[in-house]
Amino acid sequence: MKAARIHRYGGPSVIRIDEIDTPVPADGETLVTVAATSFNPTEIAVRRGVFDVDLPHTLGWDLAGEADGVPVIGFVDSGAAAQYATAPRDRLVPAPKNIPLRQAAAIPLAGLTAWQTVAHVRRGQKVLINGAGGGIGSFAVQLAKHWGAYVIATASPRSAEAVLGYGADEVIDYTTTVPGQPVDVMIHLVGSPPPWPVPAREQVISAAAPVRADVPSTHVVMSYDRDHLSALVALVEAGVITVDVTESYPLDAMAEVHRRGEAGEFRGKVTIVPH
Length: 275
Ligand SMILES: NC(=O)c1ccc[n+]([C@@H]2O[C@H](COP(=O)([O-])OP(=O)(O)OC[C@H]3O[C@@H](n4cnc5c(N)ncnc54)[C@H](OP(=O)(O)O)[C@@H]3O)[C@@H](O)[C@H]2O)c1
Prior knowledge:
Blueprint: E1 2-6, E2 15-19, E3 29-38, H1 42-48, E4 57-58, E5 62-67, E6 70-75, E7 84-88, E8 92-94, H2 101-104, H3 108-118, E9 126-130, H4 135-146, E10 150-154, H5 157-165, E11 170-172, E12 183-188, E13 200-206, E14 218-219, H6 226-237, E15 245-250, H7 254-262, E16 269-273
The chain binds NADP nicotinamide-adenine-dinucleotide phosphate.
């Protein structure tokens, strides 16, 4: 089978498409025929060697495919960027029935991170979501609206329409305008600190870069939760959450996906299809 792997750390060119043996599930695992994985920008850090991984390392965290004849989605520690992957059974849930697996691959990491970040927001609060045009942002805006918040979102012109479509009450173009209006909560989803004063009165929550050393904030690190993922699937099936996949690539283009992702050329979620 084909797998997108790195044998050493470095730029996008270290990604190789290797022909390797189909993995064999260990106890408690199952084999997934992969329909798609998704690009998550944190994997750039894996490729660069910011985190230590065993080499060679097969990329890919989000998984959508068929396991034991059942369409599933899930989250694995590595190996989803391949034609077949093994996954612990408890890392998989039934896929949404109303969208293709290739689209559902966008849900796990971004959806779970959004869920666990927005869970800190209370009904009726005014929330600034900074970085709403990204993969996590698309889920965060929809969840915050579903849970009863008033949402002000930052987005550049390329994402403004989509973010309004997710239900944001207001969109601020971060390329021209400082979000100065006071809010109860700020959710930060950008890989660099905001270059403007934080307008949150009660709480700052970051899933990305620390907001500022002098501003207390809660940092959320996604931890896999089967119940949260199943609840996300149910909201997709109920039509409450739309899964916005903006581009899709074959596995052979993984190095190009990393190059474009690193250059900031993507918005929303991008998927990779290995078959
Ligand atoms: N804590 C965790 O467990 C966890 C898990 C996954 C990811 N992360 C981190 O969370 C962050 C977001 O991840 P993601 O997957 O959503 O990223 P992403 O999809 O790559 O986000 C890209 C989006 O960021 C927006 N953006 C870029 N610069 C911005 C700025 N200065 N102000 C406002 N928006 C800006 C752009 O929006 P426009 O299109 O509007 O320009 C772009 O579409 C990353 O730093 C990632 O490493 C954390």
